[in-house]
Amino acid sequence: MAFDGTTIAAVCYELNKCLLNGRINKIAQPEKDELILTIKNERSQYRLLISANASLPLIYLTDTNKPSPITAPGFCMLLRKYINNGRITKIYQPGLERIIHFEITHLNELGDECVDVLIVELMGKHSNIIFCDRDLNIIDSIKHVNVMMSSIREVLPGRKYFVPMQNEKANPLEATEDSFANLIRTSSIPVGKVLFNKYTGISPVVNESILFASEIESEKPANELSEVELLHLSHIFLNYIDDIKNGNFDPTIYSKNDIPVDYSALPLSQYSDCSAEKSQSISEILEKYYRKREIVTNIRKKSTDLRLIINNSLTKASKKYALQRKQLKDTEKRDKYKLYGELLTAYAYSCPEGVDSFTCNNYYDNDNEIKIPLNPELSAMENAKKYFEKYNKQKRTKEALDKIIFETEKEIDILESISVALEIATDENDLTAIRKELTDYGYIKKKHHEKIKGYSNKPIHIQLDENTDIYIGKNNYQNEEVSFKIATGNDWWFHTKNIPGSHVVVKTKLEDLPDKVFEIAGGLAAFYSKARNQEKVEVDYTQKKNLKRVNGAAPGFVIYHTNYSLMCSPIDPKESGLIK
Q1: Per-residue pLDDT tens digits for 359-378
Q2: CB 70 within 8 A of CB 30
Q3: CB-based burial of residue 485 (10 Å sphere; 0-12 exposed, 13-18 middle, 19+ buried)?
């Protein structure tokens, strides 16, 4: 979600509760476009991070500190001169703009009380931190903007501060039922974009959420809404605005398969299929969301080379497999060639010379007639010999292809299982294990004397209660350990049916496993598989004593003939609380 007016309203509400009347104890500028203010208020200390980064502007309270440069930048020194030890007397957001004003009271060089304003603008590439006097004359800013950079507004010392016009967008905090109806009626924009285009601080995501709740088609022009639809939409919108005015915020992170999808200060109706992690603090939600996103992004970046190797190898193996299957299909004619050879040998005496075909009775098929193509330049016996040669050649080809296809199928199975392991990887430890497996199979060239070390390759262990433990393999080596080292005779084993995924083992001291545990184990097997995004997944389960290794198969590949099946919804162990 964009750092929109609603999010900033929630941040402003929280800052007023924590920082109002607090004193600025320390000012640091760890990055060229970032400040950290340390504020003491009512025997508590807070750190406020403010970032004017063009790609990720942020403001929130944090416990994390960052190292600062030995020599403070000029803007930081200026703030220390003016407002260090100053008191924050007012924090407000003009309208629902992506702006926060901090009014700071401090003493000047003569000991007289002064008020200055620190303005934080969180507007994407136009983000800035601007320091002004009480009359909004700019003293300095963290980013200088001259006329060459912007023809609309200069941000330079001595200039007057003002907020650029937002294309005459209305202030949503002043909206009424009548003004909302008039604004919508006069717009031909699709209703899926109208709130975003007509009101400040409303992002496309919020527009989508309000529209989703109203159940109105997004492509419908706003001026074609019926009175009932318009009234319904206005009530949802105004209730949303009332929650902002009254501070009824509900900070939430929406995740899918433990990957953060979005965050919000107020509920977003379009994410009903996602898990929701809530907090009383919007700062906590922002810090946690961006930290999780950074982890996911880093894992994606670090796994790019592995993903490329796997995808390329899978593509090659799949093409090879298709060609081999086609060649195998061509050998299906071998029995026909054998039949032709046998019939020609039997009826050679009656086959005239120089003909291109010969019709005779097929004594293998109730003496039905069969027409055999011939080479007119060869005798019947010579034609028979040619057909036997074709038969023998295709027979040898089939025998060779059966072995080759088996190996190719095994290769595809291995690559697909490694691909699933990569999809469920959550840290560098998982990536190292996958890299080792690819190296062992020869997909990554192993350097001389190279050893991949410094990682743990232990399966996931979940203790359900004092009697029951669940073990989950996240790659083929872990699957091998789970199935043949950890599991014993009557332990229950789970795996998605005909779909690559993890081996899940349940060890229990109980005589009978409760139905709930079967559902949990099946749900975990579904989650740690290629089908993790499906609503329902079929999962096979059996006891360990029914598992057998496949001769010559890679680690983690098993066969079983006695099993049961159940349909399960994937269970994320973190979202369900199984893993803290």
Answers
A1: 999 988 888 899 999 999 99
A2: no
A3: exposed
Q: What angle do CA 261, 497, 478 make, to 5 degrees?
A: 70
Length, in residues, of the chain: 580
Please give the model's pTM, rounded to 2 decimal places: 0.69
In one-letter notation, the amino acid at residue 533 is N
Are 107 and 23 within 8 A, CB to CB?
Answer: no
| Contact yes or no for 155/145 (Cβ under 8 A) | yes
* Residue pLDDT, tens place only, 292-305: 888 878 888 888 88
Which of 290, 286, 378 is CA-nearest to residue 341? 378
Task: Give the whole-angstrom CA distance, residue 261 versus residue 564.
Answer: 35
Locate 366 and state its tokens.
């109730």
DSSP β-bridge partners for residue 116: 104, 133
Residue written as tokens 């020609």? 344
Give the pLDDT confidence of 90-109 residue by residue, as tens digits: 999 998 999 999 999 998 88
Q: Which residues contact 94 (CB under 8 A, 6 or more apart)?
A: 101, 163
Q: Encoding tokens for residue 281?
A: 């603090």
Q: What is the pLDDT of residues 410-436, one digit of tens each?
A: 899 899 999 999 988 888 888 888 988
Q: Which two tokens stand for residue 580?
A: 């803290």
Within 8 A by CB and 6+ apart from 8, the residues are 59, 93, 96, 97, 98, 99, 100, 122, 201
CA–CA separation, 398 and 332 (whole Å): 9
What is the DSSP annotation of 53-104? -SS--EEEEES---PPPSSPPHHHHHHHHHHTT-EEEEEE-STT-SEEEEEE
Please list, residue by residue across 248-273, b when 16 or more beta carbons sit within 10 angstroms of its beta carbon and e when fewer do.
Answer: ebbbbbbbbbbebbbbbbbbbeebee
Instruction: For residues 254 and 453, give the distance between their C-alpha atoms in angstroms, rounded to a whole number.
Output: 36
Ordered alpha helix ranges (H), 250-379: 282-302, 304-330, 334-346
Average pLDDT over residues 129-143: 95
Whether the predicted pLDDT of 449 surpasses 50: no
Q: Which strands, in side-by-side order, build the sheet including 537-543?
A: 460-463, 468-472, 504-508, 492-496, 537-543, 564-568
Name the token pair of 414.
Answer: 């291995």
> What CA–CA distance (Å, rounded) separates 336 from 358?
15
Q: H helices of 162-275, where?
A: 177-185, 191-198, 204-214, 227-245
What is the average per-residue pLDDT within 184-192?
90
CA–CA distance, 200 with 31 (Å, rounded to integer): 30
Positive/negative CA dihedral, 266, 270, 272, 273: negative
Phi, psi torsion values for 49, nearest 5 degrees: -95, 130
Burial of 500 (0-12, 13-18, 19+ CB in 10 A): buried
pLDDT per position as a tens digit, 155-164: 999 999 998 7
- How far apart are alpha carbons 575 and 365 in whole angstroms? 66
Q: Hey, what amino acid is at 525?
A: A
Segment 60-89, tens digit of pLDDT = 999 988 888 989 999 999 999 999 999 999
CB-CB contact of 14 with 283 (8 Å): yes
The token pair that represents 443 in the structure block: 């997909």
The percentage of residues in the chain with a pLDDT greater than 90, rounded to a whole number, is 67
- Helix and strand numbers (H, E) in the chain are 13, 22
